Amino acid sequence: MQILEENLKGNEGEIKLIPENLEDLWHLRFIIERGDVVYSVTKRASHSDDKLRGDKELITVRIGVEVEKVEFHKFANRLRISGKIVAGIEEAGFHTLNIVVGRELSIRKSWKEEQLKRLKKAVESSKRPEVLILTVEEGEAVAGALREWGVEEIFEKRHSYAKDYGGARKEFFEELFETLKSIKFRYLVIAGPGFIKNDFYDFLRQKDAEMAKRALLVDTSSIGRRGFIEVLKRRVIDKIVGEIRLAEEAELVERLLEGIAKNEKVSYGIEDVKKAKEYGAIEILLISDDFLLEEREKWDIDGFMEEVERVGGKVLILSSEFEPGEMVSKLGGICAILRFKVE
C-alpha cells in the first residue's frame, strides 16, 4: 500500500492512497465502511448532444460516493464500492467504483485505531519483498527479491567443495541459511536443477521449521537471472501467497477442532470467546471476515481485537471464501486457541 497524502484531525479526515497488490484490496474491504466517502476516477455515460443518436459516450471523471456496500471480488481482482454520488460532475444518483491494483482513491471517514494500524502494516509490508527467490545448484546460489517491475538480485554465494564434499556442502547450506535469516521476507521460493534444492529444503526444515513452512520448491534448469525468469513463467508466484496462507490457516483450524474434540484449550462462539478474553487466556483469535463485517454494525469488535493484541494475543482474520474461514463461520464466526483452559 502506498499512502500519497494524509489529512487527519485526531482520527477524522481523509487519506489518499494506492493499493499495490491484491492483499491491499482485501485490507481496504475491512477499512471502508457504510457512511464513508470514497473518491476515485471512474467512467460515466454521457448522452450525445445529437438527439438523433441514441448511443452514450463513456467519459472518465472523478467522483465521490457515500458508501452503502463494499464487495471484494478476489477472482476479478477488484474492490466494488457502491453508494450515492456526493461529489463530481453530477451530485445525484448512485454509482459503483471499481478499485483495481494501481488505482488511486481517497477515503474520508472517522478512522478506528485498528484501521490505521492495518494501513500502516500494509505500507510496511510493501517495503519488504513478499517473495524471495533462491536459485541454487552445487556450490553456487543466487537470490532475488520480487519487485513490481521484476526480480532484483540481492545476493550471490559461491562455495568450493574441494575434497571434503559432505562438510563443504553443509558449510554452504549454513552460509545460505544465515544470509536468509538476515533478510526480511514473507515467502521463499527455492528453485534450481537437480536435487540440491530438495536437500537444502530438508536442511532448512531442521534449522528453522517456521521459515520452511513459508517455502516452496520449483524445478528450473538454471540459476540466477535465467532461473528467475523460469520461476516467473511457471506462474508459481501467483499461487504461493494464497496457498501458504491457507496452509497456515488450515493448520490453526485443525488445532482448534482437535481442541474442541478433546475439550482442551479452545473456545468458540462470541460469549465463550469474550469470557476467555476477560481472563487474558487468548493466544490466537480467529475471526471470519463475514462475521467481522456484520458485528461491526452491532458492537466495538475492533476494540475487542485491539485488547487481545495488547495482552500479547495474535488476531487472524480468515476469508470465508475458503475452507478454514468457512469452518470458523460455522463455529459462530469467532474462535480462540487459548493459553490455558477457561472453565
CATH class of the largest domain: Mainly Beta
**Tally of domains:** 3
**Largest β-sheet summary:** 7 strands, antiparallel
Helical amount: 25-40%
Which keywords apply here?
seven-stranded antiparallel β-sheet, five-stranded mixed β-sheet, 11 helices, single chain, SH3 type barrels, 343 residues, alpha+beta, Nucleotidyltransferase, domain 5, 60s Ribosomal Protein L30, Chain: A
Describe the structure.
A hairpin with a 4-residue loop joins strand 4 and strand 5 (78-87). The longest helix has 27 residues, at 236-262. The strands form 3 sheets. Strands 1-2-7-3-4-5-6 form a 7-stranded antiparallel β-sheet. Strands 10-9-8-11-12 form a 5-stranded mixed β-sheet, with helices on both faces. Helix 1 packs antiparallel against helix 2 and helix 7 (236-262) packs parallel to helix 11. It starts with a strand and ends in a 5-residue tail after the last strand. It has 11 helices and 16 strands. 38% of the residues lie in helices and 36% in strands. It is of the alpha+beta class. The model has no long low-confidence stretch (mean pLDDT 85). It has 3 domains: 2-127, Roll (SH3 type barrels), CATH 2.30.30; 131-234, eRF1 domain 2 (Nucleotidyltransferase, domain 5), CATH 3.30.420; 248-338, Ribosomal protein L30/S12 (60s Ribosomal Protein L30, Chain: A), CATH 3.30.1330.30. The protein is globular.
Short description:
By secondary structure, the chain is of the alpha+beta class.
